Task: structure prediction
Amino acid sequence: MNPQQLSIVFIAERGVLERQALALVDSLKINGKMWSECNLYCYSPRKDNLPGSYTINRLRKRGVRFVTEDLNKNFVDYPFSNKIFACEHAERSINTEYLLFLDTDILVLNTFKLFEEFIGDVGICPVEYKKIGTNGQDENMPYWSHLFKYFNCEREKSIITSVSNEEIWPYWNAGVILVKRSVGVFKNWCNNFQIMMENRLIPSEKTFVDQISLAVTLEKYTKLIQLPVSYNYPINENLNMTAPEDSLSSIVFAHYHKVFPTGQCLFPLTQMGFQENDMLKLVKRLLVGSGLYSPTVLNKLRNYLIFSR
Result:
């Protein structure tokens, strides 16, 4: 499949997200010809949270196209909805065959080999833990049962969470989403999200409404391909994951969440068992170059780590 038929969509706003965006784009540009041929779109969907001019100029020099329309007007207090409105806009305005949404707190470490043979309508990974999801026999089951009935979903299978290995009803991680643009996944996701919010079809934890609305949306799509965990590899704050057998060379998208910006773990990849090789040095260089670490944390890092030049 031609990489020029793939557009990558991500979010950047003032603050930590703009620094994460720099690291994400730099990792895309470094890791393979395929990524360099893709179209890159950066969305800032809330008018009062635009990134700074330094970030915008630096990303534009790397070929990123900016979309700064005020798309998220009604849910400004729920930033997780930014991705929904950005994806819906991308689906109706970008003329490539496929769209790939990436959370901004991701580093791209390898080529997306599955894209070359991808024949589905959606490609996505399960959530790491059940949390607000359900296994059909817990306190969350009545909520999910009502939700599936409300949206006329007929659940036919269960999935396994990527970290805790729990069997649950289909509930997907919204950090990496590959879609065939013509099938309208993002339009339906946006509609379902707004229906849920307007009708208060939300759990006690509002944080997960983006993923829950995505779950009911994807129940309508039969050509859904579950991606391997290496396509949304969670480097969690509690570092429950261990290094895969092939080390960093097997990871495509490293989803680091809040580990790096907070400095809670100065060298999380090393702690997880990854060896000090060229790829690990590259990851460290990307994080430093983007400004994700504060000067205080950087000084500590320099005392422990040797960065590639």
